[in-house]
Fold this sequence. Notes:
Helices cover 39% and strands 15% of the residues. By secondary structure, it is an alpha/beta fold. Strands 1-11-8-7-5-6 form a 6-stranded parallel sheet. A 3-stranded parallel sheet has the order 3-2-4, with helices on both faces. The protein has a two-stranded antiparallel ribbon with strand order 9-10.
Amino acid sequence: MGAKVISGKEIAKKKRQEIAEEVRVLKEENIIPGLAVVLVGNNHASKTYVNNKQKACADVGMESVLITLPEDASQKELLQKIEELNNREDVHGILVQLPLPDHIDEKSVIEAISPEKDVDGFHPLNIGRMMTGQDSFLPCTPYGVMVMLEETGIEISGKHVVIVGRSNIVGKPAGQLFLNKNATVTYCHSRTKDLKYHTTQADILVAAIGKPNFIRSSHIKEGAAVIDVGINRDEHEKLCGDVHPEVAEKAAYLTPVPGGVGPMTITMLLFNTLKAARQRNLVPGKA
């Protein structure tokens, strides 16, 4: 019969319309949510991501500030720029585009961002709040995954979720968000023995390993929901995920690449920026 496609593109469109309406209401109170994006160097992919984020801000009526620094900018210069943005009243969210040049310590940069403006959800304070079930800014990609499942009506509580990948950006926080929703969570990674044994136990399988078409039908059980977080290029330079297309014949639900998790990541960044603006101005609301 084939898996039902979970269209992140369609869900993101719906959520961005809701965000745009809330931004419009805030503007009536002279509050304009503002996102500052800091780009260091000339990484082509990073420039593309930043352009997409700026366009998304404009589409929902938010202000965006782009700070560009050269590839050889010092860590001190970057930290000074972050401090300036921490103190700007018109900036509610700060995002430093990763990866950074090798001579800059990523951990120090993330920790320099004010937790109240950490709309990427990477600051240790926000991670700690997430771990303990407190209100916080959630990392955008895992947050987007949770919203996709919620919007599709897929039950999480009591389900066995298997995460393939343990990055700080996706794998680890995704598992915690599922745990917070009362799922049983198994983490798998490069050192996991007998990967298929674990993945075939999953009611919900999240693939976030960065290997083109790695997850095959033999990795999943019949009727599983499969979330493909990967963005790769195959041997023909065609965009693909971590999950092989053949999985669609066995899974009940599957996210496509492109058009799946990707659009949700930027959408949740917008949501976090809206939330930051509300909290900064003590305005109650959905965010």
